[in-house]
Design brief:
Elements: H1 9-26, E1 35-36, H2 49-61, E2 69-70, H3 85-93, E3 97-100, H4 105-118, E4 122-126, H5 136-145, E5 149-150, H6 167-174, H7 200-215
Parallel strand pairs: 1-2, 3-4, 4-5
Helix pairs in contact: 2-3, 5-7
Amino acid sequence: APKHYMEYEQLKDLYIKMVEDTVKKYANDERILCWNIMNEPGITIGERSIDILNTLFEVVRKQDPIQPLCADIWRSLDNGKIKTKEEQLACDLSDIISFHSYLPYELLVEELSYWLKDGRPIFLTEWLHRINHNNIFEIYPLLYLNNVANYCWGFVVGKTQTHEPWPHMWNEYEQGIITNYDFTKWQHDLFRPNYKPYDPREIALIEKFNNLAKKEGR
């Protein structure tokens, strides 16, 4: 069964020391945007994430960093509510909201409306899934309009082949569970191996809204 580093007795103290040393070194460094305490709490270890979250948030806050703290909410909401105890705790402990979403436009609008009511700054720290209709032409203007900071993790197609769909998607499609995936598109990544854009119109749109945001002082 998968474990977090904190769940190995021989590694726990070393891991905490690494976190302390890293945050202490950069606690006043304005180049650091924020500290992501744990990526996607609960994704492999479920509610065991709770003790780890409590410990690590406490460890980092003791270093008194100038940057905000967060931990990613990665499951989609269920009737406007966070689905799991560990993700609710991550939300409660966070200074800013960091969430992941590969949902189509209309479902992301619903999710964003929930987070916008919270009043904290919002970071969409994983998105872009063209196969599932989470695309730049719809999503990026939406994020601009709502002043939602964001980044996607894919850039140039490489060894990890993240432009291809995740294996479970083929299973869902073949079993008739989800039939509206568009397998003609890349899942992720912005540039081809020759460094030409996957779609030049995407890059032009990103530049357009980035320039607008800069003019507005964002």
